[in-house]
Design goal:
Largest sheet: 5 strands, antiparallel
Number of domains: 2
Number of helices: 7
Strand content: 15-25%
Shape: elongated
Helix content: 40-55%
Strand order of the largest sheet: 1-2-5-4-3
Amino acid sequence: MDSMTKTCDSQIAGSKIEKLSAGTVLDIKSEIIVRTPYHCIAEYQGTRAALEAEGVIPAETKWPDTGFDRVHWSDDMIEYTLFRDRPDGATGAKKLFVAVDWWRFGFSPIRQKPYQQVDIEQKKKALEDAIFRDTAEGMRLIQKLFHDYRQSENDAAYQKFRGLLDIDRMTSRRMSR
């Protein structure tokens, strides 16, 4: 193992990624991290070998030659970006990471609205929903939904179906995140 590989491994090992619960049982050099930081946007992170093994990057892709250069391309619907990056939580000057084998591959729809517009639309919808719930019609709907919920608790067929799904376990796991 050459000194550059040892340095790269130690820089990844010192990052937050290595300290994640998954990082304690997975080989971070052969696994990838998938993130969806915004609606309709995804990002893969990992070593070049891990990203290539996952098959998410086209084989003919020309990887950036040096440092933190980026490669961009698109098809009819999606824009792609590939670049070397410092692992999350790794410390030190950026120049120390110019040869680290840690990459981000992101993609997003070309015709996607700007994030700010989506955020504003979601907040507007939440406000409209809150205002509606405060109307007589909204209160009637809430009462009806509560009534229907209470009836479902006494519905033997529904409770049998619900038992097959183990909803209580799934709900408690989801809420504990």
